[in-house]
């Protein structure tokens, strides 16, 4: 049997190291892909059947993965729910930000653009609507905290943008945080009612109904000065 030359041995070792690095990178990539598959499957199952009926097995079946891979990424169903919720609120927030950036710089146009992005996202994606409006509620104290944190973030976002652009001045209102939190909560309740009536009202009508709240808040501030 021929002996390995130093050069051949060096190349073999290098190939082995490269192979190990490749396998490590590929393994990370596959884990990320499985994670995304599970998030997508979780949204689909929860959106179609509800969180209570979304078992680990049903989510894995929808993802085409075994339960072993579920627990590779998530401690339990609630952990997956939290990640799906955080992912979809980011999607919604990004769509609203894009709408804000493309809108005219006046209060009505600004509010209408954000509301249109919000309601259109729900209308076009019933799974997301069910998750954000219904299935996230009452699961546990931990999920409730996550939900209220997200609502607070939306309220802060709207307040920051409107004030920085000079679109609304409610500085004479004693607690502005409550006003913006109340507006976000009111819009969510309008969305829930719309979803429960199977989106019977045209989206433009729902947007205008919600817009009334923002305009009313601005007008009240002007009168109260």
Regions with little confidence, pLDDT below 50 for 5+ residues: 14-22
User: How large is the radius of gyration?
Assistant: 24 Å
The description of the largest β-sheet is: none
CATH architecture of the largest domain: Orthogonal Bundle
User: What structural class do the secondary elements suggest?
Assistant: mainly alpha
Give me the number of helical elements: 9
The proportion of strand residues reads under 5%
The multimeric state of the shown protein is single chain
What would your notes on this structure say?
Helix 1 (6-49) packs across helix 3, helix 4 runs antiparallel to helix 5 and helix 4 (77-101) packs parallel to helix 7 (141-164). It contains 9 helices and no strands. It is elongated, with a radius of gyration of 24 Å. The relative contact order is 0.09. The chain is mainly α and 225 residues long. It folds into 2 domains: 1-74, Orthogonal Bundle (Arc Repressor Mutant, subunit A); 76-225, Orthogonal Bundle (Tetracycline Repressor, domain 2), CATH 1.10.357.10.
């Amino acid at each position: 049997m021929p002996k390995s030359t130093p050069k051949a041995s060096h190349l073999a070792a290098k190939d082995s190291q490269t192979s190990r690095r490749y396998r490590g990178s590929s393994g990370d990539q596959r884990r990320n892909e499985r994670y995304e598959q599970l998030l997508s499957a979780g949204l689909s199952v929860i959106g179609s059947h509800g969180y209570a009926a979304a078992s680990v097995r049903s989510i894995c079946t929808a993802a085409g993965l075994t339960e072993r891979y579920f627990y590779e990424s998530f401690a339990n169903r609630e952990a997956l729910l939290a990640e799906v919720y955080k992912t979809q609120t980011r999607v919604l927030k990004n769509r609203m930000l894009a709408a804000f950036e493309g809108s005219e710089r006046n209060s009505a146009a600004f509010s209408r653009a954000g509301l249109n992005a919000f309601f259109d996202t729900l209308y076009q994606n019933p799974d997301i609507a069910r998750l954000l409006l219904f299935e996230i509620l009452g699961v546990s104290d931990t999920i409730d905290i996550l939900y209220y944190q997200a609502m607070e973030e939306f309220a802060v976002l709207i307040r920051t943008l409107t004030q920085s652009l000079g679109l609304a001045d409610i500085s004479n209102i004693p607690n502005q945080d409550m006003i913006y939190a109340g507006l976000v909560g009111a819009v969510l309740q309008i969305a829930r009612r719309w979803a429960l009536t199977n989106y019977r009202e045209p989206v433009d009508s729902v947007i205008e109904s919600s817009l009334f709240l923002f305009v009313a808040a601005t007008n009240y501030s002007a009168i109260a000065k």
